[in-house]
Automatic annotation (TrEMBL):
PANTHER family, alphabetized: MANNITOL DEHYDROGENASE 2-RELATED (PTHR43362:SF1), MANNITOL DEHYDROGENASE DSF1-RELATED (PTHR43362)
Domain Mannitol dehydrogenase N-terminal residues, every copy: 38-286
Gene3D superfamilies according to UniProt: N-(1-d-carboxylethyl)-l-norvaline Dehydrogenase, domain 2, NAD(P)-binding Rossmann-like Domain
Lineage: Bacteria, Pseudomonadati, Pseudomonadota, Alphaproteobacteria, Rhodobacterales
Organism: Ruegeria profundi
Entries under Pfam families matching the protein: Mannitol_dh (PF01232), Mannitol_dh_C (PF08125)
Top-rank taxon, per record: Bacteria
Any GO MF annotation of the entry: oxidoreductase activity, acting on the CH-OH group of donors, NAD or NADP as acceptor
Name of the protein in question: Mannitol dehydrogenase
């Protein structure tokens, strides 16, 4: 269905207005008074509302999981604005599904409260101590885990982590708040909750366990042992393309008859794979399409390398060439050919099949999703935080390619595009605004690398020992020099005609 002008003014989104919404909009069939909380979710952005919250909503629509409603939470000051917007509309969200053939809207309501954003996170800790909370889930982004780039474990020298270890009752971080809540649950004889990462990190449950247990160990080793032995940190894989909310999305929502101050748009695809390891029960998620398995690794490796890695192949060169969207990149013949060749020759050979699909079939699905012109997913959004995304999404493929002696030319070119993008100016002369938590140092190194390419791959915090790999470093230097001398399209053209290795 395409949005059309409504004869009536858009209806303000609130629970007491649901019956007044246009008949074309799906609405909750359950009453908020029938719900009680079972989940606290930290980091309540667009992705959570289009993904995890949608699955809980589907269960509620089927008359199940009424004791698994969601309490929203945040630990950063910028979360306060979203809290205000959502509370003003009774924590309802309009999900706008973008399909090439038209759009549709659905209002979901599994979230029943949003905790205050405050120093020390007392309200969050108090809520997590409540025995009714059996799952604490997180979407804090790939860069939000305070990991040491070389070891992949908790960086105990980070200022916020040191603060939480020294002030465990007044934590700044989500992990500190979780440790504080688990400490109180232990003291009160309450079982621990399951802590569930919904971020794009391979082995995200193991990483989350390391962060929580590692932080606890800095101040209370006995508590750390109790958490490690009694709590659960299942690995999971999440997948749904969820663009940032723009004025265009708000306008689409208004055209559909809803006045929602925080709508979310998303593609017509979702996937959630979770390790079936919960210490305090779970909703029957398998009944609404979630895959519960003891082999999450194969699913997440396929998704992180092909989809998330593919995003990085497209976004950086797209920014340099001022191609504003991911779908635009897929419809650009030069960029699309680069994407397909790197995937086929340097990523897919190192990805195992999963039940029901091969890596080649999965790439076909990803390419179709990326090319969806109804999804205005910007290259800027996808390129954000490359300092976390390149190491997480592309370097595992690079590691396997080097170990097998296969080509790394395309992955080296992708690294060169990231470096060139971080110089902060497109080839048409327009500025690329800062787009990474480490932008200042990245830009400085990118500009210096114009004269000495080795400086970029010698950033051990991102590349580890890869800078000393001759095959990779030489290819990187060649591509970066060519990009600066002749432009990105010249590099793309040279790469796509290279013979397969």
């Amino acid at each position: 269905m395409d949005p059309v002008a409504n004869a009536k003014p858009p209806v303000r989104l609130r629970r007491d207005n649901l019956s007044n919404l246009p008949a074309t909009v799906k609405v909750p069939t359950y009453q908020v008074t029938d719900l009680s909380p079972g989940i606290v979710h930290i980091g309540l952005g667009n992705f959570h509302r289009a993904h995890q919250a949608w699955y809980i909503h589907q269960l509620l629509q089927h008359g199940q999981a009424h004791d698994w409603a969601i309490i929203g939470a945040g630990v950063r000051s910028y979360d306060a604005e979203m809290r205000e917007r959502l509370l003003a509309q009774d924590c309802l969200t309009t999900l706008i599904e973008l399909d090439p053939h038209g759009i549709s809207a659905e209002v979901i309501g599994p979230m029943i409260d949003y905790l205050p954003i405050e120093a020390g996170n007392a309200a969050l800790i108090r809520q997590m101590v409540d025995p009714s909370i059996r799952i604490v889930s997180l979407t804090v982004t790939e860069g939000g885990y305070y990991l040491d780039a070389n070891s992949g474990i908790l960086d105990t020298d980070q200022e916020d982590i040191r603060h939480d270890a020294e002030n465990p009752n007044q934590p700044r971080t989500a992990f500190g708040a979780i440790v504080a809540a688990l400490k109180q649950r232990r003291a009160g004889g309450i079982k621990p909750f399951t802590t569930l990462s919904c971020d794009n990190l391979q082995g995200n449950g193991a990483i989350l366990r390391n962060c929580v247990v590692g932080l606890a160990r800095m101040s209370d080793p006995d508590l750390a042992d109790w958490i490690d032995e009694n709590s659960a940190f299942p690995n999971s894989m999440v997948d749904c393309i969820v663009p940032a909310t723009t004025d265009h999305v708000v306008s689409q929502c208004l055209a559909l008859g809803l006045d929602d101050r925080a709508p979310v748009s998303h593609e017509n695809f979702r996937q959630w794979v979770i390790e079936d390891d919960f210490c305090a029960g779970r909703p029957p998620l398998e009944q609404v399409g979630v895959t519960l398995t003891h082999d999450v690794h194969s699913y997440e490796a396929m998704k992180l390398r092909i989809l998330n890695g593919g995003h990085q192949l497209l976004a950086n060169v797209g920014e340099i060439l001022n191609v504003p969207t991911i779908s635009g990149c897929m419809h650009d013949p030069d960029i699309a050919a680069f994407f397909q060749k790197v995937q086929a020759e340097e990523i897919l050979p190192h990805v195992k099949a999963v039940p029901g699909t091969t890596s080649t079939e999965y790439l076909g699905l990803v390419a179709k999703r990326f090319a969806n012109t109804a999804i205005h997913d910007t290259t800027r959004r996808v390129a954000f935080d490359g300092s976390a995304r390149h190491p997480g999404f592309l370097l595992p493929s690079l590691r396997d390619a080097l170990a097998s002696g296969s080509s790394t030319n395309g992955l080296a070119l992708a690294a060169a595009f990231w470096c060139r993008m971080c110089a902060g100016v497109r080839e048409d002369g327009s500025e690329i605004a800062p787009n990474d938590p480490q932008w200042e140092s990245l830009q400085k190194t990118a500009l210096a690398s114009k004269a000495d390419p080795a400086l970029w791959v010698e950033q051990r915090q991102y590349y580890g020992d890869f800078g000393s790999e001759t095959q990779f470093s030489r290819a990187f230097a060649h591509w970066l020099n060519l990009i600066w001398e002749s432009g990105s399209r010249a590099a793309l053209a040279e790469y796509v005609v290279l013979p397969s290795c």
